[in-house]
Amino acid sequence: MDYILSIVILGGINMVAVLGLSIFTGFTGLFSLGHAAFVAVGAYTSAILTYYYYVNYYLALAAGAVAAGAVSLIIGAPTLRAKLRSDYFAIAVLGFGEALRVLLENLEITNGARGLPGIDSFTTLPVVLTCLVGGVLVARNFLRSRWGAACIAIREDHVAAETAGVRLFRTRLLSLVVSAVYCGLSGGLLAHFLSFIQPQMFTLVQSTQLLAAVIAGGMGSLSGPLIASFVFIALPEALRVAQMWRLVAYGLLLVLIMVFRPQGLLGYSELSSLFRRGVVREGERRL
Amino acid sequence: MFLQTLITGLSIGGIYSLMAVGYSLVFSVLNFSNFAHGAVIMLGAYVGLALATRFSLGLGLVLAGSVAGAGIIAVINERLAYSSLRRRKAPSLYLMISAMGCSVFLENMVYATIGSRFYAFPEFFGRQVVNLWGSSLSLLDLSAFLFSILAIWALHLFIGRTKTGIAIRAGVSDMTMCSLMGVDLDRLISVVFLLAGGFAGIAGVFLGIKYLVYPTMGWVTNKAYIAAVIGGLGSLPGALAGGLILGVVETFVSTYVSSVMRDVFSFSLLIAFLVMRPDGLFGRSGEEKV
Questions:
Q1: Between chains, do A251 and B105 touch, taking CB under 8 Å as contact?
Q2: pLDDT digit string (tens) for A157-172?
């Protein structure tokens, strides 16, 4: 039972990060290959606060989220202002993530590449569920707000959006900061669940996994990426018997999704809309 | 000391250039960054290792075998993971994710089957040292550098002078037009991946001889990517120059500043170039068109 519980908690923590990236990639249309860096910032900030300074757990979580948001400004401001091509932007964030990881591996306070052991495990299922439900509500309201509408307009056609008066730079930056805050929160939860973090946990592979969940779940959908991210967490756990082969299967899965169903699980629709209409269009029924 | 550092930098830069050429070649034709290139380099090194230890072949045959092996692997990789996306005209990011999947798949396949042991090549060069202007160079560094330059020069001639080379250049400037002129695009792209894989094979063997052979050795292609961005993505002279510049600058940073900051410095250089000069030193203008 403990085992299943831990899978559910890990899945929930991962969902919080995917939720953030979904706002940035799925709704604003910008790709990032470095969001694991923001998870790392959240994890290290909150862990250092509770580990060295005995700060209250919830305050530490909030501090981790804020720190991740602040760090995202450092990379976001210059790159988004320069209006890089979308794949160049993804690479720039990737470079940022790798540089940050090298820093974490060499700082005194992060205990370097050996990682921080013995963080108090405060994260429980109710905490994760609260964060997740709260996160979904905030994301939904954000997307229905004026800012959210601006984000979606940019995704559809950034030139048209700019002509219509949407401020490209500010909206994209806001979307990045919001997504980084989600990732930071997820990192704080992760650190206080595993009670051990090390820089090696936040590599390019992790960033890809987040992005793949958003793309596999469907861009422009909140529920699709959530389901996909849970599959991505549960599947490797289910395959743990074949320890060696689970990453092989994961790589294969990524390629298969891209080749056979690039529009993702749910495409542009939400899970609830499937039940509401009762009739599923042909394209959406095929899984 | 200065000259010594410069030459060490150039020899590392030569290997970076070899990797960057393969990256750049694929980027120039398909406009996406092939993250599986590192895995192909790693497999090329394993092919070379098998030839060198099992059949105890000489360096020339090892290189030839590894070029052929890595080239074929790259072509198969394209056929299985990219070709259907390419025909559908999927966004380049989908190709990048598919490439990432391939890289994870291949790397862990090697973990699962061959294992995570570190292997060393037999000593082709021994510990021979060449004295040049008062500084001593290892023969390995010197020949790696010369061979890299030679291979890139040969590729330059191939692309400039042969019919296939002209087709590749035509494909780079306009794929659709190129196919209307009767070029078989599938075959053209296979040739491009064969070339890129071949260069990955050479890079893999030299990396393996200089360091060791292990499943994650392909991660060093991050550096090749930075080199390609510095030189201008999709430009061959750019890949060569970018690789050499990055190799030299990195060696100077780790000698005179700190070896820890070397990687942070390289990645910062990547971001600075992307923000301030996304076309690199030699690149074509890459503005996103409406």
A1: yes
A2: 888 998 998 999 999 9
